Amino acid sequence: MKETDVLILGGLSGITAGISCRRHYPDKKVVVVRKEGTILIPCGIPYIYGTVGGPQFNVIPDGLLESNQIELIKDEAVVVDRENKIVTLKDGETIKYEKLVFATGSMPIVPPIPGVEKKNVYAIWKDFDYLSKVYDEMINVKDLVIIGGGFIGVEFADECRKGRDINVTVVEALPQCLQMALDDEFCAEAQEKLIEAGINLLVDSKAQSILGDEKVTGVLLADGTEIKADMVILGIGAKPNTELAKQSGIELGFNNTIRVDAHMRTYTDPDIFACGDCAEKHSFFTGRPVNTMLASIATAEARIAGANLYSPVHRNCGAISVFSTVVNGRAFAVAGLTERQAKQIGMNVVIGKAESPDTHPGGMPNSTLTKVKLVFGKENGVLLGGSISGGKSVGEMINVLSACIMHHMTADEIVMFQMGTHPALTSSPIAYPIVNAACKTVPFLHK
Amino acid sequence: MKETDVLILGGLSGITAGISCRRHYPDKKVVVVRKEGTILIPCGIPYIYGTVGGPQFNVIPDGLLESNQIELIKDEAVVVDRENKIVTLKDGETIKYEKLVFATGSMPIVPPIPGVEKKNVYAIWKDFDYLSKVYDEMINVKDLVIIGGGFIGVEFADECRKGRDINVTVVEALPQCLQMALDDEFCAEAQEKLIEAGINLLVDSKAQSILGDEKVTGVLLADGTEIKADMVILGIGAKPNTELAKQSGIELGFNNTIRVDAHMRTYTDPDIFACGDCAEKHSFFTGRPVNTMLASIATAEARIAGANLYSPVHRNCGAISVFSTVVNGRAFAVAGLTERQAKQIGMNVVIGKAESPDTHPGGMPNSTLTKVKLVFGKENGVLLGGSISGGKSVGEMINVLSACIMHHMTADEIVMFQMGTHPALTSSPIAYPIVNAACKTVPFLHK
Questions:
Q1: How many CB pairs under 8 A join A and B?
Q2: CB contact set of B374 (below 8 Å; sequence gap of 6+)
Q3: Interface test with B, best of A39, A323, A394, A399 (most B CBs within 10 A)
Q4: Which residues pair with A144 in a beta bridge?
Q5: Cβ contact (<8 Å) for A430 and B298?
Q6: Contact A59 B403 (CB under 8 A)
Q7: Quick one: DSSP state of residue A289?
Q8: Contacts of B192 by beta carbon, 8 Å cutoff, 6+ apart
Q9: Sign of dihedral through CA atoms A12, A13, A16, A21?
Q10: Helices B295-308 and B12-24, packing angle to 10 deg
Q11: Is B51 within 8 Å of A424 when comparing Cβ atoms?
């Protein structure tokens, strides 16, 4: 029987948890077990089909594990004997551990639509060989239908059209694409960009069944419309991969995630931790369980879990939820609550909006209009969230807001924010839209 | 005699102070007096000579004043009668005020080098007609010498070479260009980019005199070298424009700036405020006066001053000093203290460094390596400063650090930072270099 101090089950957040553990406990032996041979950058998966040109260009190198003296075993854990602290792998090997970390992630939801089992209907499994097959199959596809207009669906639609003579249709059940993530005005903007790119959007539309004999030939919508399709991608969402944890008698919580405390320790077993998509998350704002799966949250949790294994160092403040996407060249990002979400949790809010070119003067090359919307609590002026659309710099601008939210910064403080500005890199100091959006709210707060 | 509630003297920060006042005191009459007809974006001035193609493309529109019902008078204030609260303009007009704001900015230091008065030797006055003349003269220039290798000097060198058949030489007295602003490794990187662009760098070099009859023909260095020149630009630095304040009996402080408190109110007169380059600044870190002139600080101060005119709303927390520049396509930025500066004020520091491509996978288009260096106080783990080099997103990434510094964020907290990431916009969540730089310092803190 193999022995280790720390045993980590899983992929992306497993790597980060391992490195964090190595940093805090340099003398401990760390082993990562995962079933995937090659591990993909999860947020890069849509880009395999367009910009980067294949799954082989979207791989996380295992060198990170080696250079941190973390042993990697490519196999699947099938039994956890908590009493004896022994994990059994599929090939029969057993590993004794002191501390165990579940970083088993999530898997795609496959909706129970009749015909979903037909050939060329694909959910997005984070599996190299599977996604390679999808890549190869897509070469001859003429009519691609994507069911689901959330991030995955929209990013796939935008990428799959690139460099291909292909009709792409997105079928979304809600009135707008990205509606769970963005406020209405940003949804509208993103949809315009999709339409500009030649993508067919069918909103308020439900896929009722998938047509064809062995292989898909079309999608039938609830309203009777038939759409031609020789490939269907399912972008409905993901669910936590917690079957093994459940079988091991570990308590699950919200939406079948593993119940953990703010130290990322399971409620059930003091020597077992969990992080990433498989772990329960709580809102930074309300403390309630939330259903957010983001690589940025997963890696933050992994850093906390790895550091806390032998003595709690870090406390998880809850999921702020910060993300960004690009739709036909325009970036969209949110940190914290949208206006819709803030109102859903009962907040009285004050909204501030501002826009400005992301260079100054606006005549600098590649200048892009940036639009910022901030949401503040009316009674205390605290920043609850922000949404931004614009050019490449939006990816880091949203992180400015994440830092502000994490510190409960008020509109009054953001008015005094000292931002660096430069003609080629940012808006002008007079027009900097995060500050100007905050300025506009000041007269409406504390009243 | 004209009457107003609020009278603001000056340009860039005058506009921002006026808008801030308008927002907080909607009923007050606000007048801005400035001598410049057209006002330039100050940080955009070097870009007039390259990327934007002329001063007419680098103008702050006066529409901002109009839309905020702020009256603009293009004239120069010459006398302030504080006892009667009356300002006299050059054309003889008098204006009675309740509250007066000095936003008179700064002007270039003209070093006392023999020959500095010769034709085609230019300090950088923020004056449209003057800079237009420099633009026209530069058309026929073959040998441009820039005295001073700080931001202004380096940005002029990089811009003036663009689209011109011209030899550009930078003469810097210190051992490295940008040495007052950047740590050694970033100075070295910036210098490499300048040399790559074909710019001649003469460091450890002092301009002893400017040669020529009526018009400049060369620069003589202290070591006896003569450099050919048909134009010389002086990029030595700036000094506050506070002559009128001094004549009005207002107390000056450090480096002849107007002495103000944290409300931006002058020490001398409760109805007179100052903001921007003409106002005294104190370090966010030590509280000591500092000699930093940045548009971002100026506008933050202007927002504070404008809000505080009739009742203090905001308190200035001191200058963090956040800035960015671009050298031959690579961005360099600093927020807070560099390692050198932290050591100069006696801090024990722990340094964390990390680098990563600014996309993930690195094979995404236009991926640029981002290098991050963070400086933490050894005893308390608080972030004192950060330096970044990389691509366009550095301009906003440095603002993430500004927000972290403003909230005295510790390395432990940055380890848990929830950053949004996206393949086309940022580093990967595993490699995000701000977080990874903080992670690396954790074992060396609190010991």
A1: 290
A2: B351, B352, B353, B383, B385, B386, B401, B411, B414, B434, B437, B438, B441
A3: A399
A4: A168, A231
A5: no
A6: no
A7: E
A8: none
A9: negative
A10: 30
A11: yes
Tokens of residue A83, six digits: 């009493």
- Tell me if B121-236 shares its fold with B329-444: no
Chain B nearest C-alpha distance from A407 (Å)? 7
ipTM of the complex: 0.95
Residues 343-372 of B with CB under 8 A from A: 360-361, 363-365
- Select A121-236's CATH number: 3.40.50.800, 3.30.450.40, 3.50.50.60, 3.30.200.210: 3.50.50.60
CB contacts, 8 Å: A295 with chain B: 421, 428-429
CA atoms within 13 A on the CB side of A54: 4
Name the CATH topology of A329-444: Enolase-like; domain 1 (3.30.390)
Query: Per-residue confidence of chain A (447 residues) as pLDDT tens digits?
Result: 999 999 999 988 999 999 999 999 999 999 999 998 888 988 999 999 999 999 999 998 888 899 999 999 999 999 999 999 999 999 999 999 999 999 999 999 999 999 999 999 999 999 999 999 999 999 999 999 999 999 999 999 999 999 999 999 999 999 999 999 999 999 999 999 999 999 999 999 999 999 999 999 999 999 999 999 999 999 999 999 999 999 999 999 999 999 999 999 999 999 999 999 999 999 999 999 999 999 989 999 999 999 999 999 999 999 999 999 999 999 999 999 999 999 999 999 999 999 999 999 888 988 999 999 999 999 999 999 999 999 999 999 999 999 999 999 999 999 999 999 999 999 999 999 999 999 999 888 865
| A-chain residues near B326 (CB < 8 A) | 422, 424-425
